[in-house]
Write a structure and sequence with these properties.
single chain, 290 residues, mainly alpha, ABC transporter involved in vitamin B12 uptake, BtuC, two-stranded antiparallel sheet, 11 helices, 73% helix, transmembrane transporter activity, transport
Length: 290
């Protein structure tokens, strides 16, 4: 039988990691919930945001946490511009075209990153990177604890925006009935771009929370986006609470899978739980649309 300290450690580490997965998946589920598309550029845009945090620190000395408002605004503008100026124009309203356009954006971004940064890994050296806090015998890295709290806060603020603000009401109206929303005067193209921009802004926040403890390289987004897609489907396509719950569950599965099966087989537990849940809940844990 495993030591209770190891089990407690697995629980804590799983929840901390799961919050980051949930933050990445929240943007993806918002984009799906409104635009009804799978954004293949999500991982590449996360990588781009992480390089942005790296450059702000290395060139201007801006701490990753201080860079959070800069990156959130910058990634929102980038996402809005991509949707309004490229994706909507190139897709001509066809879903299959949107998938190909986002895939093309992903390929372009990754190759630009390879051109400018090569395949080398980059990291930043912050003084608090190895600081930790002991909680009931388990040492928790301070940056991961900050990331957990910030991810929950951002998820809550995003939910409040969608539920209580005028923009959020417009987003929900467009998600449920595009033509009806247009008839009552909502600028559907603008709301599409805003939704995509907010989804990409979540990646800017995630990058700031990841960089104190993670490496960045041109293909770093692949691992995160695979997990994010799993989280979105597991929690329920288009469901914000489902994305948060799914992210935490995936983090726990990865942590305990690594604990019982070894680190190299840890992710097997993720997909076993994924298959079991979908066998009994095909719509996901909290399957509903925005």
């Amino acid at each position: 039988m495993l030591d209770p300290i190891l089990l407690w450690s697995g629980l804590v580490n799983g929840l901390l990691q799961g919050a980051i997965y949930a933050l990445v998946a929240l943007g993806l589920t918002l984009i799906y919930g409104v635009l009804h598309i799978i954004n293949f550029a999500h991982g590449s845009l996360l990588m781009l945001a992480m390089y942005g945090v790296f450059l702000l620190f290395s060139q201007f000395g801006i701490d990753p946490y201080a860079a959070l408002p800069i990156m959130v605004v910058g990634m929102f503008v980038l996402g809005y511009g991509l949707q309004r100026g490229l994706i909507s124009r190139a897709s001509h309203g066809r879903d299959e075209n949107i998938l190909l356009v986002t895939l093309g954006i992903s390929i372009v971004i990754e190759n630009l990153a390879l051109f400018f940064f090569q395949g080398d890994t980059r990291t930043i050296d912050v003084p608090y990177a190895f600081d930790s806090l002991e909680v009931f015998g388990v040492f928790i890295a301070i940056p991961r604890l900050i990331a957990f709290a910030a991810a929950l806060l951002i998820a809550g603020l995003l939910w409040l925006m969608i539920q209580r603000s005028d923009v959020g009401r417009a987003i929900r109206a467009v998600a449920k009935e595009k033509q009806g929303a247009r008839l009552v005067g909502i600028n559907v193209e603008h709301i599409y771009a805003v939704s995509y921009g907010v989804g990409i802004a979540c990646l800017g926040a995630a990058a700031c929370l990841l960089m104190p403890t993670y490496l960045v390289y041109p293909t770093v987004g692949h691992a995160f986006v695979l997990i994010a897609f799993t989280v979105v489907v597991l929690g329920g396509m288009g469901s914000f609470p489902g994305a948060l719950l799914g992210g935490l569950l995936i983090g726990l599965c990865e942590s305990f899978g690594g604990l019982f099966l070894g680190e190299s087989f840890g992710q097997i537990g993720i997909f076993l739980v994924f298959i079991v849940v979908l066998l009994f809940r095909p719509s996901g844990l909290l399957g509903s649309r925005v």
